[in-house]
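Quick start: read one record
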Amino acid sequence: MLHNFRSVGLCIVAAGALLAVPPQAARKAASGNTASTARAAKKGAAASSDPKSALNKQHLEAYVRHLYGWLPEVKVQISDFTPSPVPGLLETTVHATYELASQDKVFYVSADGKHIIDGTVYPADDNPFRDNLRKITTALQPSFGPAGAEVVIVTYSDFQCPHCREEAKSLRENIAKTFPTQVRVYFKDFPLPNHDWAKTAAIAGRCIYRQNPQAFWQYHDWIFENQSEILTRNFSEKLNEFIRGKQIDPLQVNQCLEKRDTEAEVDKSIAEGKALGINSTPTVFVNGRKLSGATPWPTLQRVIELELDYQKAAKQNDESCCEVKLPTPFTQPQH
């Protein structure tokens, strides 16, 4: 799997707008404890000279290689240590690459360099998926479902990935039928580098979306349905077969694809996915909650229902927090 770079699989299978983040919470998280993090940085500078300190990049690289079993051909780069959201801890990113595969891992290191933490920092006073929600953009992205829906699903997908095909089919068949007014789905491109025509397909999809947003979903369904018949050498031919008879200008789409006019949009989506720690497709976010790999519909349905219950409870708490209720004939329990 990609996480240890021993092999690069097909899709590497694992298992309105997005919710707003309160600005005051964002400022609080960003500022942190300035004095504490400054002291941590000062201690870190002193500890970095210790040959067995985690703040010594050479030692940290050797430690991480041993931890994950990365082979010598995996290239590793370690970023500078900076204050983390947690007072007293420093943060660094380990960037590992092997051929076309890459992965970023965030580590937290104690100020004395004696302890390494591999995990996720959650803000106890805010949405646990706040950081994911900040990184995900949905403006001008292909979507279906009602605007302002209580649950927003964002799927990062690869048109050449068989598991993405199954996930896409599940979303298209079940979301509108089961949650017609409660869920909105956004599609984001994340073509894997080891798939030879996936990025071309993503660029073509963006070209079609630019011209006719609704036609994008016809393209989406068609390309997944015909995935097994598409090759690098026949992609243009198959694309023109699809366009024929649709409300799409074939000349405009082919020129867009030839000039790769939408490649920057695809690259931006890929960069966003990497910032979210995505290294397999499909990866789905449900109101910021990350689900890696093809998720069976019963499981995804339950996750959506839990999120709806959470939203309902939060709304009830907001409505009941600021009023005084006196007993009346209308509020007395019935016997």
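Residues 297-320 form the longest helix (24 residues).
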